[in-house]
Write a structure and sequence with these properties.
alpha+beta, about 700 residues, 25 helices, globular, about 40% helix
Length: about 700
């Protein structure tokens, strides 16, 4: 894990602050473990973890005006210096508009500004501490700092309504540690904090001016090319030197056995349009995209393309064929990683502690098997579906903008998939109802559903679309929560409706799409930590700020067309000079994720039953153990249950076990008690405790 951490104090003198650290319980100086100091008192900042030298840059105008950029940033030092001068007047947005994925921290006198990203893949957290405010890009260090207990209301919201920002709000699993929303910055002035948005919000009163589809797609292409080029222009990295030969093993086998990635740059190549687009862009741009000559595969400067072939569950033959056809490109070196039962979800229940829980914990071993064959810098297509596809709720946006004619093609595609002549009327009625429903009414409706335990939703593609045509809906795990937990989430939703200025400020489709993107970005962040390969960096260009902005500018009418994502990415590749794509490229993917999950459950049913024999979730009052065990048995027997809901339950239970099993802390100079959740989980009956 890598993060930055710092704080802003109320005074410039001593008191709570020492020399680039704070005074602990017994007068000792606090420092983050494994940190490098970027600047010192009175408002110190550290970079913690295995940052590469080129991933940490500090540009100074003078001792009171400087900017730190951590991550992959395509801006030159001179551009950052100019950005620092502009930021002295309070401007923020330009700091988030450089190519790449990074976190920018600006110090202007005693004012500290920390910019989050638009997707939520690089979040910012904060907590009151020592009379001022501590901030970090990870929640656990702050939880250790204040010895935070668990926020059970937040954990209940993660299970009952994970896609509803009003339910989770700004809370984290740790009571007292808060997060800033995507598209916002944390501004600290001598300990006092302010959260400011840096992105303009579309008006509900006036429709956005019509965008030209060709220009919008060209902007997406330019943003993607810049995002890929920012990674290609960074220095190449060779993982730790091979310690020596092993009898009977070649260099590649030694590297794989020791969990070391191939030097250079590579990409996923699943056969889908997102990963294929990034692989072809990276291989086709001028320069030397691939492995470092003389290291690893001996493939010279060809891009290493990795395809995962699941031998335990079939159904991806067409995608594998497309991946093989794409890999015929002479600038690609294709590697196929096979996985059997040991890479199914739930096959491995042990793993590292992540900053927060996430459903990807149950499939981390599956991803680690693929990434272990990858490169030191590895492109992935995560986020493409969320930034390019049309959320079903966008049909209501079209009605609000009086663009009914654009509903014809998506509704016709749903009718064809369902085979019913009643589909157009049902979809149109649901979209019209959502367009006329205020945001407050949508939250109140969800709160009522949770209280009355109404979780049944229609099945199939049409049923999923109809269920998504709402401001808010229950999560897949909500049906297994206790009445107390559901009541807690209902109270949180009602509290959201009573806050001043309630409302997302966007149309329902745009709002739901942003929430889905934030959920995907958060899960990718947890996946990176759970499946981390030493010396490897995962790159998700679709989650970069500039790519997200370009994709948000795509016209609604273009988004809702069936096959829009593949058509947009095909145009992006054609604009970059790549035209020879295999037949069927971009076809809808029906990867058997549910089949793999069910097969994994079937094989791991005994360990899972043991996990939920006396679960921590039951001690917290969120579930009843017998209810979860019954659901696991039913899923193994093939009953149509929401498997992603079971993944949420299992991953949260695993995360709680790992959190309580840790013995260390993120800080030196602290007594042993200075860590998160020092007293463990206290058995709770009656009302849940919530951090709000």
């Amino acid at each position: 894990m890598r993060w930055l951490v710092g704080w802003s104090s109320t005074t410039a003198g001593t008191g709570a602050l020492g020399s680039a650290g704070a005074t602990g319980y017994d007068g000792e100086t606090l420092h983050p473990v494994g940190s490098q100091l970027l600047w010192g008192d009175p408002d110190p900042l550290w970079a913690v973890g295995d940052w590469r030298p080129d991933e940490v840059r500090v540009i100074k105008a003078d001792e009171q005006n400087r900017i730190a950029v951590l991550g992959i940033c395509g801006a030159s030092d001179e551009e950052l210096r100019l950005g620092l001068f502009t930021a002295r007047g309070g401007a923020l947005r330009h700091l988030t508009a450089y190519p790449g994925s990074y976190t920018a921290v600006v110090q202007v006198g005693r004012r500290i500004t920390v910019c989050g990203d638009l997707a939520g893949a690089r979040p910012v957290f904060y907590t009151p501490w020592a009379g001022g405010t501590a901030y970090a890009t990870a929640a656990l260090p702050l939880a250790d700092l204040i010895e935070a207990n668990l926020d059970f209301g937040h954990l209940a919201a993660l299970l009952a309504a994970p896609d509803v920002p009003a339910a989770v709000h700004d809370s984290t699993p740790y009571d007292g540690v808060r997060r800033i929303p995507p598209g916002h910055a944390l501004i600290l002035r001598t300990g006092a904090r302010e959260i400011a948005g840096y992105e303009p919000v579309a008006s509900l009163a006036v429709a956005a001016p019509p965008a030209d589809p060709d220009n919008a797609v060209d902007a997406v292409r330019d943003a993607l090319v810049d995002a890929v080029r920012a990674r290609l222009s960074a220095p190449r990295h060779v993982p730790d030197i091979d310690p020596g030969p092993v009898p009977g093993m070649g260099p590649a086998e030694r590297r794989a056995a020791r969990g070391m990635p191939v030097p250079g740059i590579g990409a996923d190549l699943s056969g889908g349009p997102a990963s294929g687009t990034l692989a072809l862009l990276a291989a086709g741009l001028p320069g030397m995209p691939g492995t470092v000559l003389g290291h690893g595969t001996g493939a010279g400067e060809r891009l290493l393309a990795v395809t995962f072939n699941d031998l335990a569950v079939g159904g991806r033959e067409a995608e594998l064929e497309r991946a093989g056809a794409l890999a015929a490109n002479p600038r690609l070196h294709h590697v196929v990683v096979t996985g059997a039962e040991e890479t199914l979800p739930y096959a491995e229940l042990d793993g590292p502690l992540t900053d927060e829980p996430g459903p990807s914990l149950v499939s981390a071993a599956r991803h680690r098997a693929r990434l272990a064959a990858g490169s030191a810098d590895h492109f992935t297509g995560y986020g493409a579906r969320q930034v390019l596809d049309a959320h079903p709720a966008r049909l209501a946006d079209l009605l609000m903008d009086r663009q009914r004619r654009h509903l014809v093609r998506p509704v016709a595609a749903l009718a064809k998939a369902d085979g019913s002549v009643m589909v157009p009327a049902r979809v149109y009625a649901a979209a019209r109802r959502l367009a006329r429903t205020p945001y407050r009414a949508g939250l109140e409706g969800l709160a009522d559903r949770l209280r009355q335990r109404r979780f049944d939703e229609p099945g199939g593609a049409v049923g999923a679309s109809l269920a998504a045509l709402t401001w808010a809906r229950p999560g897949p795990a909500a049906r297994w929560l206790t009445g107390e937990a559901l009541a807690e989430v209902s109270v949180r939703l009602q509290g959201a409706t009573s806050r001043s200025g309630v409302g997302p400020g966007q149309r329902p489709g745009d709002f739901r799409a942003r929430a889905a993107l934030a959920r995907q970005a958060a899960d990718l962040r947890i996946l990176e930590q759970a499946a981390e390969i030493r010396s490897q960096r995962l790159h998700a260009p679709f989650l970069d700020n500039q790519v997200v902005r370009a994709c948000r500018a795509l016209p609604e009418a273009l988004r809702v067309k069936p096959g829009a994502r593949a058509a947009i990415l095909r145009t992006v590749l054609e604009g970059a000079g790549v035209t020879d794509l295999p037949s069927g490229w971009g076809a809808p993917s029906h990867a058997p994720a549910a089949a793999a999950a069910r097969a994994g459950l079937r094989l791991a049913v005994e360990p899972l039953m043991g996990l939920f024999d006396t679960p921590l979730l039951a001690q917290a009052g969120l579930v009843e153990a017998r209810v979860v065990r019954k659901a696991l048995r039913a899923a193994v027997q093939g009953e149509p249950l929401p498997l992603d809901g079971l993944a949420d339950l299992v991953s949260l239970e695993l995360w709680l076990h790992r959190l309580l099993a840790r013995r260390g802390t993120c800080w030196t100079g602290t007594p042993a008690r200075a860590r998160a959740v020092p007293a463990g989980i206290q058995p709770r009956r009656g009302a849940l405790a919530s951090g709000g």
